[in-house]
Amino acid sequence: MQIDEIDVFDAIRDVKDPEYPHTLQDLNVVFEEGIQVVQPNGQIPGVITVKITPTVKHCSLVSHISLCLRLRLVRYFGPQTMDQYKVDIFVTEGSHDQQDEVNKQMNDKERVAAAVEIPELMQLIEECIKELNV
């Protein structure tokens, strides 16, 4: 299955914000122009890049949002499809006070793997994506 930018946006736009009772699309955290997809080519995996714009420059939940997006993509497209893609999530240039640190943290495989092992964090993530149908 090939995924394009519209598919990715459709998958993530209705994810709920962990702080506010709105979707990430409603808050302009995710937007179509912030998504880029490079298709897999033989043994080379594809790349899905998502830029997010936090609601405030000091947002402390930006890494939580990135985990919500990652889990949503796997649930929406399935693990078999997502195994063909690398997912990179970055904050939009100039949108966060600790941009470089946050970008590194959101894309660190070991941190992501450790984070999904924390029951309280997974409960928060599940709350953000629970009402979404595949």
From TrEMBL:
Q: Which organism is it from?
A: Acrasis kona
Q: Which domain of life is it from?
A: Eukaryota
Family membership, please give it: Belongs to the MIP18 family.
**What is the recorded name of this protein?**
MIP18 family-like domain-containing protein
Q: Which UniProt keywords apply?
A: Chromosome partition
Q: Which GO terms describe its biological process?
A: chromosome segregation; protein maturation
In terms of SUPFAM superfamilies, this protein maps to: Fe-S cluster assembly (FSCA) domain-like
Q: Which InterPro entries match?
A: FSCA_dom_sf, MIP18
